[in-house]
Amino acid sequence: MTKLRKTSKTQLQDESSNAGSGTIITQPEANEHKAQSLAEAKQIAKQEAPVLSDDDKRIREAFTDKDWNEIKIADSWQIFKVMAEFVEGFEKMAKIGPCVSIFGSARTKEDNPYYKMAEEIAAKLVRHGYGVITGGGPGIMEAGNKGAHSEGGRSVGLNIHLPFEQFNNIYIDPDKLINFDYFFVRKVMFVKYAQGFIGMPGGFGTLDELFEAITLIQTKKIGQFPIVLVGKSYWGGLFEWIKDVMLTQESNISPEDLDLVHIVDNATDAVKIIDDFYSKYMLSPNF
Fold first, then answer.
1. Where is the composition biased (Polar residues) (predicted)?
2. Coil, strand, or helix at residue 131?
3. Can you give the pLDDT at residue 167?
4. Which band of pLDDT confidence, cut at 50, 70 and 90, is reported for residue 253?
5. Cβ neighbours for 158, distance < 8 A, ≥ 6 positions apart
6. Domains of the chain, CATH where assigned
7. How many CA atoms lie within 13 A of 135 on its CB side?
8. Are the beta carbons of 150 and 127 closer than 8 angstroms?
9. What's the CA gap between 171 and 173, in Å, rounded?
10. Is residue 27 classed as helix, strand or coil in its secondary structure?
11. For a tag site, which of 46, 200, 269, 278 has the least CB within 10 Å?
């Protein structure tokens, strides 16, 4: 038989005898662990709430309902920020003269052969009369600006604020360093003011910039400027897939689209392709 009795501590105890064991099972009061004040309740809620990463916050924010005033205020301010970046970019880039954009990884170290090759390509481009545009950061970008700077040529850096990796290098002309918050504005500057593109080995950002240029040329949104990729062992597999799958298997591009890109293995061949392209039009840099 079970008896319920109230102890001096106002707790309910279930006194139950199991085969004469004499064990007393204590049943806590229902309100024992509840907050005693509003402040305590907030503290408990804060402790129990999951810690959200920046990615989690961005995802949750995308599903948050906002009223029209919130949308209008936030988006209007963003439009002005975008406009400001375009204006600064147009003002600084409009008079830089003929330039070649060099794409490549921010993670490439100074002792890497591709770093040295990017530096050599940039120096040769300057000696042939071109300026150099890079993403303004370390790695291949630094090598490009370093090569241009060493020859006294125009060295442009389109830097972007990132939580890691990216910081502007010291070889950019002070009046030709532009800092961006928006990738799409930065890519406009890469393409709008370049008369050729050199792609060194890189990651997703390099691929993004490379295929932006290829797409705009393929769709005839810009002129058919030369695109040169350096490193056959690096780029060969990707373009074999493009040829075998994208073109032959799925017919998602045309055969002539493959002619938009040249793959080489050294600095001399890279610069020669740029020069040969413009010699067809009897054009030369006019620095």
1. 9-29
2. strand
3. 80
4. very high
5. 89, 133, 134, 135, 136, 178, 180, 186, 189, 190
6. 77-280 (3.40.50.450)
7. 30
8. no
9. 7
10. strand
11. 46
Residue written as token pair 């691929």: 207
The pLDDT score that the predictor gives to residue 12 is: 42
How far apart CA 122 and CA 155 sit, in angstroms, is: 9
Rounded Cα distance between 107 and 130, Å, is: 25
**Tally of helices (H runs) and strands (E runs) in the chain:** 9, 10
Which of 2-6, 61-65, 122-126, 279-283 is predicted most confidently?
122-126
Three-state DSSP at 55 gives helix
pLDDT per residue as tens digits for the range 146-191: 999 999 999 999 999 776 656 889 999 999 999 999 999 999 999 9
Phi, psi (degrees; rounded to nearest 5) at 71: -65, -45
Contact 142, 171 (CB under 8 A): yes
Residue partners of 210: CB distance under 8 A and separation at least 6: 103, 197, 199, 227, 229
pTM exceeds 0.85: no
Distance CA 82, CA 64 (A): 23
Q: Are strands 99-103 and 197-199 parallel, antiparallel or unpaired?
A: parallel
Q: Which of 123, 118, 120 is nearest to 102 (CA)?
A: 118
Whole-number Å distance between alpha carbons of 136 and 144 = 9
Structural tokens at position 154 = 């125009």
Mode of pairing for the β-strands spanning 12-15 and 131-134: unpaired
Q: Report, in angstroms and rounded to the nearest whole number, the Rg of the chain calculated over CA atoms.
A: 31
104 exposed, middle or buried (CB, 10 Å; 0-12, 13-18, 19+)?
Answer: buried
> What are the residues whose beta carbons fall under 8 Å from the beta carbon of 258, sequence distance 6 or more?
239, 242, 243, 247
Please give the single-letter amino acid code of residue 25.
Answer: I
> Does residue 221 surpass a pLDDT of 60?
yes
Tokens of 59: 């995802």
CB atoms within 10 A of CB 240: 10
